[in-house]
Each structure stands twice: as C-alpha cells, then as structure tokens.
Amino acid sequence: MIRAFFGIGLEGRDRTRITDWRDQACACEGKPVPPANLHITLAFIGDIKRTALEQIADAAESYFAKNAIGGGTLVLDTVGYWSKPGIFWIGPSQWPQPLTRLSQKLRHLSCAAGGKGNNRPFQPHVTLHRRCRNPPTAPLYEPNVRLSYTHCTLFESHQGKKGVSYHALEQWPLQPQ
C-alpha cells in the first residue's frame, strides 16, 4: 500500500517566507511541519494499492493532456485551526475558482479508483503545525505571503525513522495565467 495525495509543491523561497512568518508571529503547542513538507493538498488519496495509484496517475495524465489547467497566484493571508485533527494552518481568504474545480476533479479521479473521498469543502491551506490540542493564540501580525503555483504533483507520503516525508511521483505543468 502507498499513501498518496495530489498537491501543489512549494518553492524554497515560499517555504522560507512561510516558516519565517510562522516562527516569528505564531505560538503553537503543536509539532511544526518541516519546511520540506510544506504544500497545498488538492486531493487526498489515502492508502491505496500501487496498481490503483497507477490507474489514478494515468487518469490524471489523460485529464491534463486534454484540458488547459491554469496556474496562478495565491495570497496566504488568513489562518485557521481544525480541532479534530489538531491542525493549525495558513491559507488564502480568496482563491481562483479553477483551483476548486481542479481539486474536485482530482478527488473524483481518486475516488473512482478506490481512493479516500471526503465531502468537506475545498480550503487551500498549508499546514503549519500538527497535533495541536488547543487552538493557537492569535498571530502577532497577519500573514501576507504571495506564492505562485505552476504544477500539480502526485505525492507519496513516506513514514520513515525521522518522520514523514513527501516524494513527488508525477508532476503536471499548469498553464501560465
């Protein structure tokens, strides 16, 4: 079994801006996400057999080949906390509608091949801390991180001795806007 998801990988300078803001402006009792693991999830697939994941990747390849999906820019200007999973995050208060449609399509492709589905509305976000038992205090100052997204990536989540790491399995370019 492979644990996988579709997401937007972040460039090094974007990861640095996010972690600098997190480290300077936020106090949270949770476990900080390592900079290398920062990303925006588009569709969580979950644990799946390799053959089913190959089927999902093939379906995504076909979809991207037939459709001009645009990249874009996001402004991470808000924070949130989800109590059940204990996640503190940063995200955009507004985002392009095509990003929501892409998330929905990738969720559909994943579910059709046996991936985990969910009915939660799409909220693009970057997880800053995990395992937060209590809501974090308000940040010292509001976030304002602008980042561009130019690729959609199929990631594998690998649990190792030093924790979780994410590895790109496939990547599809998004059209410049």
Automatic annotation (TrEMBL):
Motif (HXTX 1): 39-42
Family: Belongs to the 2H phosphoesterase superfamily. ThpR family.
Known catalytic reactions: a 3'-end 2',3'-cyclophospho-ribonucleotide-RNA + H2O = a 3'-end 2'-phospho-ribonucleotide-RNA + H(+)
Transmembrane spans: none
Top-level EC class: hydrolase
Top-level taxonomy: Bacteria, Pseudomonadati, Pseudomonadota, Gammaproteobacteria, Cellvibrionales
Keywords, comma-separated and alphabetical: Hydrolase
Motif HXTX 2: where in chain: 125-128
Name used for this protein in its record: RNA 2',3'-cyclic phosphodiesterase
PANTHER family in the cross-refs: RNA 2',3'-CYCLIC PHOSPHODIESTERASE
Native source organism of the sequence: Candidatus Marimicrobium litorale
EC number(s) recorded for this UniProt protein: 3.1.4.58
Nuclease listed as a keyword: no
Highest rank taxon of the organism: Bacteria
SUPFAM superfamilies to which the protein is assigned, alphabetical: LigT-like
Biological role: Hydrolyzes RNA 2',3'-cyclic phosphodiester to an RNA 2'-phosphomonoester.
Residues annotated as catalytic: H39 (proton donor), H125 (proton acceptor)
